[in-house]
Q: What sequence folds into this?
């Protein structure tokens, strides 16, 4: 049964969605006006309800529905890529994730859904306006109790967490420059994902990860084709989204046992001294502004 305060959406026969927070008093629903919230009492996921003469189905949103409904500024991650990140980084209930690059909170929403009520996601974002937009989006989803954020440059600033992450995701233009700063915040055995739109960026982060001794370094691209299915006319959609970004994954190795006792910060940082690549300052480039 729906509880007061829960975020749900009403879907009409044409598939149009109206989002609302459940309340059993009078409700204002965008696009529908005021409605009697008591009609939602006793209803559950997928139930039908008639409001002002029209029938709607009430659904509890999943991560994909929530991502599709976000207020957007920076380009959000596509569901095909978010799903791949969750699987390759093994993000699951109770995990702690450090995310770089809030954008609009697309990946944040997928991560928050996956870590569940006992997990936590901390997002570090360079620009205050992106962090604030993500804060509004996360509040709307109702997943805010498992989320925190800080504003700063991941290449040098301290994200301000007092734990080591099970997974580190970096959706930023020059993740190889942030690696020396963030590596100590990923636990041994933890998984890392970098998400970059261009091949030269992919090469730089893969090289940096190899030089830093990460295991299982691999890179991939997801191409997903939607299908048009009509009686007598079945074909791939003309609107298929092709390239979005390259996904790079790796797993952190602990320091060799011989080095562990008394390992100084300098010593662990020494692994990164060789990592010197061109900086990709500026807003996160994605297809629209990077492939011209
Ligand atoms: C493409 S957006 C991320 C989109 C996000 N994953 C989503 O699904 O909505 C990249 C974000 O990384 C942030 N960013 C870029 N460089 C950064 C840095 N050095 N430290 C922290 N955040 C950075 C940008 O301000 C931008 O918000």
A:
């Amino acid at each position: 049964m729906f509880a007061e305060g829960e975020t749900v959406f009403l879907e009409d026969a044409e598939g149009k969605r109206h989002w609302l927070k459940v309340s059993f008093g009078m409700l204002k629903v965008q696009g529908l006006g005021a409605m009697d919230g008591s009609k939602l009492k006793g209803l559950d996921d997928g139930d039908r309800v008639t409001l002002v003469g029209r029938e709607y189905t009430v659904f509890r949103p999943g991560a994909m529905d929530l991502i599709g409904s976000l207020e957007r500024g920076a380009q959000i991650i596509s569901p095909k890529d978010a799903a791949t990140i969750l699987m390759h980084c093994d993000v699951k209930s109770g995990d702690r994730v450090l995310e770089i690059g809030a954008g609009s909170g697309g990946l944040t929403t997928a991560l928050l859904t996956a870590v569940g009520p006992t997990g936590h996601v901390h997002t570090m974002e360079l620009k205050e306006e992106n962090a604030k937009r993500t804060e509004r989006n996360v509040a709307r989803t109702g997943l805010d109790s498992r989320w925190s954020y800080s504003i700063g440059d991941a290449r040098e600033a301290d994200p301000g967490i007092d734990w080591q992450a099970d997974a580190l995701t970096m959706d930023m233009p020059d993740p190889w420059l942030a690696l020396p700063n963030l590596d100590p915040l990923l636990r041994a055995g933890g998984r890392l994902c970098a998400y970059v739109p261009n091949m030269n960026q992919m090469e730089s982060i893969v090289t940096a990860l190899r030089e830093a001794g990460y295991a299982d370094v691999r890179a991939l691209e997801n191409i997903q084709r939607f299908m048009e299915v009509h009686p007598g006319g079945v074909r791939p959609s003309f609107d298929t989204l092709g390239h979005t970004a390259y996904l790079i994954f790796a797993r952190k190795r602990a320091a060799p046992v011989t080095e562990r006792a008394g390992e100084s910060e300098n010593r662990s940082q020494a692994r990164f001294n060789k990592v010197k690549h061109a900086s990709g300052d500026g807003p996160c480039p994605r297809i629209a502004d990077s492939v011209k």
Summary: Residues 74-77, 100-107, 124-127, 130, 153-155, 171-173, 284, 286 surround S-adenosylmethionine (CB under 6 Å).
